[in-house]
């Protein structure tokens, strides 16, 4: 089930699947070569993450956050990720620093490509930071809020350069590595507010609708 969850999640965060898109179990099973039962369980997992809406006796759809939802998501995200930084400041190992810089290098390489790839990589950066705390409850909630934020950015945000976010991620790594914790936490809060401000979290996107074709690249892993 991991592969189908990862594939659909990536398609949503990268904006290949848009809010309101229908996600019938048979089409998902065909795309990923799994049974309808496995597809149904995957949709349940993604619904728990806030990426999919499940309604009784209806086909699942991609969740559709409003601009107000997006603002609430970022407010919660700031509070959670300040906690992440408080735990990590001054405690990152050289290997962890190298791993985070590798993710940023991937962001840099993807900066001229589709916005969705940059959003996904930035999301992975923040989730990996949370995972480095080793605190399961914090990781769970940060992961969910980051996925919700990624969906909001891919579906509501205006196109904008990722250069600023990349430079901010590098600065965050350096300050988290050396501390102090209060300054690193404030830098994280400022970074997330800047992301929201640059994106403006508004707008709409064009739609194309063949689910099997949309998911084909994501079913290959």
Automatic annotation (TrEMBL):
Gene3D superfamilies assigned: GntR ligand-binding domain-like (1.20.120.530), Winged helix-like DNA-binding domain superfamily/Winged helix DNA-binding domain (1.10.10.10)
InterPro entries given in the database record: GntR_C, TF_FadR/GntR_C, Tscrpt_reg_HTH_GntR, WH-like_DNA-bd_sf, WH_DNA-bd_sf
SMART domains reported in the protein's UniProt record: FCD, HTH_GNTR
GO MF term (any one): DNA binding
Entry superkingdom: Bacteria
Domain (HTH gntR-type) ranges: 1-65
Keywords: DNA-binding, Transcription, Transcription regulation
Protein name: GntR family transcriptional regulator
Native source organism of the sequence: Paracoccus hibiscisoli
């Amino acid at each position: 089930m991991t592969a189908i969850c990862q594939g659909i999640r990536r398609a949503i965060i990268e904006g290949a699947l848009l809010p309101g898109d229908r996600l019938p179990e048979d089409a998902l099973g065909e795309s990923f070569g799994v049974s309808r039962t496995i597809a149904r369980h995957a949709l349940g997992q993604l619904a728990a993450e806030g990426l999919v809406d499940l309604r009784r006796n209806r086909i699942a759809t991609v969740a559709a956050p409003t601009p107000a939802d997006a603002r609430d998501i970022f407010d919660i995200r700031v509070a959670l990720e300040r906690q992440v930084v408080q735990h990590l400041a001054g405690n990152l190992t050289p290997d962890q620093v190298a791993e985070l810089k590798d993710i940023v290098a991937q962001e840099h390489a993807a900066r001229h490509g589709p916005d969705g790839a940059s959003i996904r990589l930035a999301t992975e950066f923040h989730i990996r930071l949370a995972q480095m705390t080793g605190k399961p409850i914090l990781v769970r909630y940060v992961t969910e809020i980051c996925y919700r934020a990624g969906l909001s950015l891919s579906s509501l945000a205006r196109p904008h350069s990722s250069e600023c976010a990349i430079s901010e991620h590098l600065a965050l790594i350096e300050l988290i590595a050396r501390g102090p914790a209060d300054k690193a936490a404030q830098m994280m809060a400022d970074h997330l507010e800047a992301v929201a401000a640059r994106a403006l979290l508004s707008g709409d996107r064009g739609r194309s609708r063949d689910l099997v074709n949309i998911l084909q690249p994501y079913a290959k892993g």
